[in-house]
Amino acid sequence: MTRPRPEPPRGNPMRTRVLAAVVAGALTPLVLTAPAAHATAAAAPYDFNGDGRADLAIGAPDATVGGRAGAGAVSVVYGSSTGLKTATRTLITQNSAGVPGTAEAGDAFGSAVASADLNTDGYADLLVGAPGEDVDGDTNGGTVVAVWGSPSGLSGARTVVDYWPDQTDRYGQSLAVGDLDGDGDLDIVIGSTGSTDLNFINGPVTRSGSFQGASGARFPAPYSTSYGVTSVTAGRISPAWPTSLVVHGRQSGTGTAVTQLVTDTSIGNYTDWLQALPVGTVSAIGDIDKDGYADIAVGNPAETSADPAGGKGGKVTVVYGGPDGKDTSRGPLVLGQDTPGVPGAAESGDAFGSSVFLGDVDGDGFADLAIGAPGENSGTGSVTVLRGTASGLTTKGAASYTQSTAGVPGTSEKGDRFGARVLLADHSGDHRAELTVAAPGENAGDGAVWSLRGASTGPATTGALSFGPSTTGVSTTGTPHYGATLNN
């Protein structure tokens, strides 16, 4: 059966809705607003139980649930003083008590995740996208749910409203959170396909009661409405703006990647605030050189034969931030496996840059960069970690990890795709980020996750943890691809 779309609450008046004509190079803003209460300080993202440690959300969007293939699931493993602790976990599906909807074939629940303390109660909440959900007769209309944090972890949920269901499909294929309008409340960014492919849900979002309105945009050509906003990253590039967005999509016809930076999301006309970025499919935001301006890493795993902006074996481009968004006084840093100091060698199909993440592995205050290359060595996969310094990212002391690295559990096998997703987050509370790596192809598509503790010398393999879907209650029927999604 299909689940009906929630209607916008009647008590939430529509003040304005502006639909401008689409013109080349311009966004079409749709605005829907209502008064919102000023928010208090929010808990850190992914700290669902408020203990000061980041927890881990693991998406398995192809998981079978209740006999329904591809319904999808999300496992949450909580942090502890020793890092991730699989004994404390929560499994979330659309068959879970308190979660709206019903697990159905092809829902792809867990295709995207994001986190923030949406209701500012001191506990981070989890957003989950199910872009394959059929809603009110609309095939692949898509849906997003917010699952609430508490002292005991995640429980209870509500559907996040889609104000323009006739203009969106695959609602929830990408997610992010940020203060988009500078009012102190956290807003939800939802990517979709269709004529409105970037949707902003105004905060605060609470357990019950009215939503606070929304706005939406049609990203300009060459973004294709068929692909929509495939990935979006939110962060504060400059203190001048509360939140900036890196928006990824595909071009019509060719399907090649396209990427833009929206520096200021607090205004209605985004056109004047768009800055072109190096082309890629994924991105990460963090302050590599600790100069007060966040930097952007863009991953492009494509070969030049598939994307002229790609590179042999894939590449990552680092754009340094400044007061106006990009720091135009510094050229971008382009990294591949043929870059001096980067381990390995660039080979066709490595897919270097399929995943990127910025976080402080060694606790020195500079953001370090993790790069996944899941195509390395016939799809066995690898991960490279580069360190941040006052002068920017350095290849000195760069390290590479595979399942054949001493201390890393498992064995490198073709098709594992180790490094398809990477994450740097402090799960232990020691102010050093653990390196989490997903291999969704492990064990013929079951998938698995690894966690390496952060240390002054970089990720440590001593005591490395590895676990698969069965450990956290996800069925191995079919190919769940556990780890296809991690904390964004």
Automatic annotation (TrEMBL):
<dbReference type="InterPro" id="IPR013519">
    <property type="entry name" value="Int_alpha_beta-p"/>
</dbReference>
<feature type="region of interest" description="Disordered">
    <location>
        <begin position="464"/>
        <end position="488"/>
    </location>
</feature>
<dbReference type="InterPro" id="IPR013517">
    <property type="entry name" value="FG-GAP"/>
</dbReference>
<dbReference type="InterPro" id="IPR028994">
    <property type="entry name" value="Integrin_alpha_N"/>
</dbReference>
<keyword id="KW-0732">Signal</keyword>
<keyword id="KW-0677">Repeat</keyword>
<protein>
    <recommendedName>
        <fullName>Integrin-like protein</fullName>
    </recommendedName>
</protein>
<dbReference type="GO" id="GO:0016787">
    <property type="term" value="F:hydrolase activity"/>
</dbReference>
<feature type="signal peptide">
    <location>
        <begin position="1"/>
        <end position="39"/>
    </location>
</feature>
<dbReference type="Pfam" id="PF01839">
    <property type="entry name" value="FG-GAP"/>
</dbReference>
<feature type="compositionally biased region" description="Low complexity">
    <location>
        <begin position="468"/>
        <end position="480"/>
    </location>
</feature>
<keyword id="KW-0378">Hydrolase</keyword>
<keyword id="KW-0325">Glycoprotein</keyword>
